[in-house]
Prior knowledge:
By secondary structure, this protein is α+β, with helices and mostly antiparallel strands. It is 28% helix and 21% strand.
Amino acid sequence: xxxxxxxxxFLAALFAAAAFLLRDTWTGQGTESGSICRxxxxxxCWPSITEWNEFNRSLGGKLIATNPIASICHDNHxxxxxxxxxxxxxxxxxxxxxxxxxxxxxxxxxxxxxMSCDPFxxxxxxxxxxxxxxxxxxxxxxxxxxxxxxxxQRNNIRLVIRNTGHDYLSKSTGAGAIALWTHHIRDVxxxxxESHYYQGKAMKLGAGVMNxxxxxxxxxxxxxxxGGFCPTVGVAGGYTQGGGHGTLASRYxxxxxxxxxxEVVTADGQQLTATPTxxxxxxxxxxxxxxxxxxxxxxxxxxxxxxxKVAAAKLSFTSQGVSLDTFNNVVKSVLLGLPEANDAGxxxxxxxxxxxxxxxxxxxxxxxxxxxxxxxxxxxxxLDRNGITYDYAIGDYPTYFDAFDAMNPxxxxxxxxxxxxxxxxxxxxxxxxxxxxxxxxxxxxxxGGIMSGMSLNVSKTPLVAPNSVxxxxxxxxxxxxxxxxxxKLDYEANIESLDLVTNVLGPSxxxxxxxxxxxxxxxxxYQPNFQETFYGSSYDRLKSIKERxxxxxxxxxxxxxxSEAWRxxxxxxxxxxxxQP
Length: 581
Ligand SMILES: Cc1cc2nc3c(=O)[nH]c(=O)nc-3n(C[C@H](O)[C@H](O)[C@H](O)COP(=O)(O)OP(=O)(O)OC[C@H]3O[C@@H](n4cnc5c(N)ncnc54)[C@H](O)[C@@H]3O)c2cc1C
Ligand SMILES: *[C@@H]1O[C@H](CO)[C@@H](O)[C@H](O)[C@H]1NC(C)=O
Ligand SMILES: *[C@@H]1O[C@H](CO)[C@@H](O)[C@H](O)[C@H]1NC(C)=O
Ligand SMILES: *[C@@H]1O[C@H](CO)[C@@H](O)[C@H](O)[C@H]1NC(C)=O
Ligand SMILES: *[C@@H]1O[C@H](CO)[C@@H](O)[C@H](O)[C@H]1NC(C)=O
Ligand SMILES: *[C@@H]1O[C@H](CO)[C@@H](O)[C@H](O)[C@H]1NC(C)=O
């Protein structure tokens, strides 16, 4: 998703902020007591240069020492030197995903790089490894996975699994860590799949394949594959393992619903196949229970479908020339139309801020533009009736591939602190039911928040087997993502924004969706009660499956299943939470 528009800054008395952010991080004493913390650079347990070289040799030279990509914007560091022109070039493409996914170490969400080596800080500001990983293994085989897992465990070093670096919850970076980088494992093949739960065309995707590559490979054979809105998200990585929504969800279901088979290497170096019948508990957990938790995926095999005609549209308008009340009432009628559209197979992505609404893309696989237009007509009539001008376009496309290319906007990296919430269909099913939601949006805007929604119905298609996605998906009409501003250079202001997300915007949506949940890939890293919010009733079973396949609790990610056993110290070190005697 992408939140595109800056919003007014909310300044409030938020001095509880620092307290909540640093809540778990100031308690650390005795962090040198090796057994409860991961080994950190500078510790005596940290491998010597000779040992790193030895490890590199055992990998055939695939070990990369981190060289922060923005070092060219700074002096006084051992990395690539200052270069004004190159720095300006980097600044101009900083928000593009491709700037980061080609890098072995740069995460996309900027806040979690903690200004360690930031292209926008002054030339004389620090450029250190800081919260970047220390080393990256440029993996190309199961053997590389096994060697990396063994080395990291033998030396008690934190492991980060890095694919594209899109993760909003900072799972693809980590201070003092080795990254296992899957980006170059990019094999794709179409296969005829035969099992008692599915017979038909399927696609086997290497861990590093990105959405646009999977789409192209499917299209070349007259097929389509379920992926996200964003072309560069990795399909088999955090996306499908975390659930995975997109333009095709209302017709074919979530990313996780497509999985037939996982190839995975577990912490002990075993290579396993997980299907609904072989290691079925691992299959269940990997299909929606969160990335980077149970093992490292080598490949995934998913259902694919025959290419189909697609109708696609976009609509945007502002409050210019009308009152905000009038504008919001029109937005309300657009939202009231979502359930019918979702049921007809339409998937859409929209952004809503004070006085601004944009829905793009609106995609209807299998429908004609006439059919889609009939679903959108009531919204256009409402706009006309209220004298609001709008931008609107609709088209027929012979294939999903063409529609995706033509109607999907570019996706920059979100420059917001975000949180998320599943919005149940029952909340937008009638004019009366939607009022609390509209009031909440108004409240959020008044605090400087901004909203986006991914509309879908993912409870229509039969599953090949049950999976672990949060049950809240199945009753949702859209997945809400809300945001507060990110400040490139102002740490304190970011703390206030995070406080706003966690303690003001989040609770306002939670109040009207009791016992609800949120998408674990598009949520707040400081989400209170994250276990229930991100995993719902699946949490306990996920945790016992993790304990079975990762008995030494080696895999860790912020808000991942089992992560409550760990905390990040102030210097970034990963430590076990002390068990009270
Ligand atoms: C611009 C943008 C657009 C987005 N659009 C969408 C969208 O349309 N639909 C949607 O559902 N989500 C979307 N997302 C969210 C996205 O699904 C998550 O960020 C997801 O984590 C990305 O997965 P990745 O593998 O590409 O990223 P990474 O950041 O590289 O990895 C994320 C997590 O997955 C784990 N992981 C990665 N590879 C493996 C592996 N091989 N084995 C085990 N664990 C692994 C990592 O450890 C990490 O925990 C978007 C995010 C951004 C920033
Ligand atoms: C690993 O070896 C390769 C090939 O010899 C070399 O290019 C690379 O710099 C080495 N990596 C590290 C971290 O020393
Ligand atoms: C997307 O990012 C690019 C490069 O950083 C920037 O030039 C462009 O303005 C951004 N677009 C939007 C809509 O934010
Ligand atoms: C990583 O390995 C791939 C081959 O698998 C190679 O093409 C690529 O250049 C390597 N990248 C880096 C940064 O070493
Ligand atoms: C999804 O569609 C089915 C069939 O049209 C309908 O019965 C169900 O209520 C819908 N669910 C949601 C959450 O929209
Ligand atoms: C983030 O940066 C601040 C200021 O430089 C520093 O004090 C802090 O230790 C850093 N955090 C991590 C996790 O590295």
